[in-house]
Amino acid sequence: MIASKVLKMKRIVIKVGSAVLTEENKIAKERMLRMITFIADLKQKYDVVLVSSGAVAAGYDALQIDKNVAANKRALAAAGQPILMESYKKKFDHYGIHTAQILLVEADFESKRRITMLQEIVNVHLANGIVPIINENDVTSRPEELFGDNDQLSAQLANVIDAELLVLLSDIDGYFDKNPTEHDDAVLRPQVNEITKEELNDTHTSNNLFATGGIVTKLKAANFMMDHGRKMFLCNGFDLSAVQSFLLDDIQTEGTLFFKH
């Protein structure tokens, strides 16, 4: 029964960043609730795995120390992770959906034994209607053991659990032909089939104090997905209308879909 259900449902990974999840150094609760309501709707059609940033930002609300100091960042993550998970649990409870927490590091994707364990755990969760919520283990890991941003983690995860699509909910509407913060005539690219080396080496960074990614980390995640025969959809996480249309109605109104022909 478990195996047949896992095979029957389409599987997607949704990644949400700190820029979307937090506001004024606190969890944006209404925004989080809108996302969870959306995930509850998605579960009628997909098996959903959630990759969530926000632990360090949530910890800052309880422990206001400089996150740029390595030990402080670990302390913030340790304080913030239960705050973040409690917020998720309360909101998912509204829909009768159970959640689970999985904390990972880069080495978890370099060992066949660890990959198999991860696959088995995710399969059991999804087969039983549980939404796994995944984040990096910032607390006990050295910097070299971490991806450094959840864009890369979510792409690796999507590949090993055989998800056909990665969705990045971001503070931007998609991928533009030029930086929209610097160019008023920037045009959104609805589909991208190839990413150049110049694009992967660009210097665009995030706009949020607690966000560790930027457009380049998203492009690297997209490139990884495309190289492994999978798709990625980059869209706005503040306004969920584009991702709702794309995933629930199979209509792309905005956002950028990355895939190889």
Kindly describe this structure.
The protein has 10 helices and 10 strands. β2 and β3 form a beta hairpin. It has one domain: Acetylglutamate kinase-like (Carbamate kinase), CATH 3.40.1160.10. The longest helix has 24 residues, at 70-93. α1 (2-8) crosses α6, α3 packs across α5 (70-93) and α4 (55-62) crosses α5. The two termini are 35 Å apart. It has helices spanning 2-8, 18-21, 29-42, 55-62, 70-93, 112-127, 150-160, 197-200, 215-227, 241-248, and strands at residues 10-16, 22-23, 26-27, 46-52, 99-104, 131-136, 165-170, 191-192, 231-236, 256-258. It is of the alpha/beta class.
Going across the major beta sheet, what is the strand order? 5-6-4-1-7-9-10-8
**How much of the polypeptide forms β-strand, as a percent range?**
15-25%
For this structure, what is the CATH class?
A: Alpha Beta
Order of helices and strands: HEHEEHEHHEHEHEEHHEHE
Tell me the number of strands. Answer: 10
CATH homologous superfamily heading? Acetylglutamate kinase-like
**Class by alpha and beta content:** alpha/beta
Query: What's the rounded overall pLDDT mean?
Result: 88
Range of helix content: 40-55%
